[in-house]
Amino acid sequence: MIKQILLVGLGGGIGSMLRFLTSVVTARYYPSFFFLSTFAVNIIGCFLIGLLLGALGQSVHTNQDLKVLFITGFCGGYTTFSAFAAENVHLMQNNSYWVAMLYIGLSIITGLLAVWLGLTMAK
């Protein structure tokens, strides 16, 4: 368990640093599009988690440490949106379309409300 925690921390730290660098680069070259950094990180993260799940997630012989390092750690540090997207794709692949739609809708609506509530309470 300690080894996995360290692998998540290592991957998460690298993912977080890369997310920061993505924000710096997009802000420098596209300063009027403040949302571009988050959008880019989310789309890149979704692509990466798809690649990693495809490469590491298909075999029972896959090293679990690699999954923890790259999928949970790196992708989680880079963006949690990638995990959200992967979970919804999984639900849809298992014909749980209504559950996926409910999860997507509730996540967006409650996320927006939680930000608004936090901002309101902080005033």
TrEMBL record:
Record flagged with keyword Glycosyltransferase: no
Binding residue positions for Na(+): G76, T79
Record localization: Cell membrane
One GO MF term attached to the UniProt entry: fluoride channel activity
Which InterPro entries does the record cross-reference, listed alphabetically?
FluC
Q: Which reaction does it catalyse?
A: fluoride(in) = fluoride(out)
Q: How is its activity regulated?
A: Na(+) is not transported, but it plays an essential structural role and its presence is essential for fluoride channel function.
Q: What is its main location?
A: membrane
Protein topology in the membrane? Multi-pass membrane protein
Example GO biological process: cellular detoxification of fluoride
GO annotation, cellular component aspect: plasma membrane
- Transmembrane stretches in the record are 7-27, 33-56, 68-86, 98-119
- Is the Mitochondrion keyword given for this protein? no
Q: Which key words are in the record? A: Cell inner membrane, Cell membrane, Ion channel, Ion transport, Membrane, Metal-binding, Sodium, Transmembrane, Transmembrane helix, Transport
Q: Which domain of life is it from?
A: Bacteria
Q: Which NCBIfam families match?
A: crcB
| Family to which this protein belongs | Belongs to the fluoride channel Fluc/FEX (TC 1.A.43) family.
According to its UniProt entry, the function of this protein is described as: Fluoride-specific ion channel. Important for reducing fluoride concentration in the cell, thus reducing its toxicity.
Q: Any idea what this protein is called?
A: Fluoride-specific ion channel FluC
Say which species the protein is native to: Pontibacter akesuensis
Q: What is the lineage of its organism?
A: Bacteria, Pseudomonadati, Bacteroidota, Cytophagia, Cytophagales
